[in-house]
């Protein structure tokens, strides 16, 4: 393990150097599509301006051995989640409406019930596609005092920032090539900047699914997107790659649009999209067959404002198109699943015999987790005297150890967790039923004193619109995401790729959460130390 001193990072830069780097970084980002749509939209539907994504001026340090371990684990994670998504019994137990998290969580329940109905009718498409991102923090709290790698979560739907993170890494390489970063650090050398070709890696996954669908004639890939999405360029880069490298066209549609554009052939279960013809056009609209559906929407309840939105989601699920993800694969990404896997003997059920070593490797990346409704847990944590009568041990443990915990519901997209001192009060608001939808997880403790120079575009934060471009030096926490994909069915993994790139996101230590789009954090890259 390297003896890198995290508290000495970043190296000092003068105001003039920072100003110059900021200028070059912002210009590079704008010219290379490391961008968002502005918070106040220009007249839809045609955008006329973009702002650069929030970015870091210097890459964030990661020990080489831990970075390589995260990369080498990705194939194991791909396989694990493929096996979970095809294990109906496991998913029914953990996420279902009868005994699992779906009992307490309406969103999970609705998805699960739709899936159950569909599998009872018979599944038209046996293959699933997962574009995954496994997220990690460096952890200082290991037994041996050394740095470890601990998983925050595993994303199975809308795993974003692949293309933008590729461009953030390229931007840091450019700044180095241009300025040598003024010679301020011996670590800032090209051989310490790992390659990051996420766009081609993720597009390959989509293209493999498209091929496996084996359309007789022309078919396109459908991107299901949110209305008013600002992070469109991250998605567009995948579209351009699919068209330019694979000659595959992409159709973008919101759930609202799909309600009228999508039709399912009741016999063949072929999904077709019919786009409205432009006004004045004489040709009649011709339906487009869909080979693969890539969901960049559908991971939050607000994507389903009415029951009709779920009907549309289920129509897509019923189709013969390959879904990225299917409902079971989406459910497999639940925090409840992460917690259930961590229980003694659980992940071992997915990796037995000659694969037992994999279960061990994965466990080394996990913090302790438990369910708030757990009647007992094998953990030796002080439950203390405030164990209220009739309360499950899981809840008592969460109260007694609040300051070292985060509570998580079955949600994605940031901003849903409860931290530390907020926990005891929050527990009072949960009914016994509610507890079933929440897990407790020990907090990962990243290296202290590490910082970064964070740049946000004018108007980025909170959409105020009038904020100036700003570079701040901040104490930071950096979260590493590793991308991978798998195309799989019940019997086997058809193909998987565990090394398709990575994401580094950096947030100021003051914020518990780090959503880039929400403005709490910036896109960063990695310097291996
Ligand atoms: P989401 O699916 O909403 O992104 P996460 O599990 O990734 O949910 O949690 C959101 C953020 O909360 C993470 O990006 C990280 O900053 C923080 N976080 C989550 N779990 C932990 C943990 N165990 N220790 C420290 N920080 C955490
Ligand atoms: Mg997530
Ligand atoms: Mg997350």
TrEMBL record:
GO-annotated cellular components: cytosol
Pathway assigned in UniProt: Sulfur metabolism; glutathione biosynthesis; glutathione from L-cysteine and L-glutamate: step 2/2
SUPFAM superfamilies hit by this protein: Glutathione synthetase ATP-binding domain-like, PreATP-grasp domain
InterPro entries in UniProt: Glutathione_synthase (IPR005615), Glutathione_synthase_a-hlx (IPR014042), Glutathione_synthase_C_euk (IPR014709), Glutathione_synthase_N_euk (IPR014049), GSH-S_sub-bd_sf (IPR037013), GSH_synth_subst-bd (IPR004887), PreATP-grasp_dom_sf (IPR016185)
Binding site for ATP: 153, 335, 408-417, 419, 441-444, 479, 507, 513
Protein's organism: Hydnomerulius pinastri MD-312
Pfam families: GSH_synth_ATP (PF03917), GSH_synthase (PF03199)
Protein name: Glutathione synthetase
Subunit field text: Homodimer.
Record's cofactor remark: Binds 1 Mg(2+) ion per subunit.
Residues annotated as domain Glutathione synthase substrate-binding: 220-332
Residues binding substrate: 133, 157-160, 229-231, 235, 296-299, 505, 516-517
Alphabetic keyword roster: ATP-binding, Glutathione biosynthesis, Ligase, Magnesium, Metal-binding, Nucleotide-binding
Residues binding Mg(2+): 153, 155, 412
GO terms for MF: ATP binding; glutathione binding; glutathione synthase activity; magnesium ion binding
Enzyme class: ligase
Keyword Metal-binding: yes
Catalytic reaction annotation: gamma-L-glutamyl-L-cysteine + glycine + ATP = glutathione + ADP + phosphate + H(+)
E.C. no: 6.3.2.3
Record family assignment: Belongs to the eukaryotic GSH synthase family.
Cofactors (names): Mg(2+)
Superkingdom of origin: Eukaryota
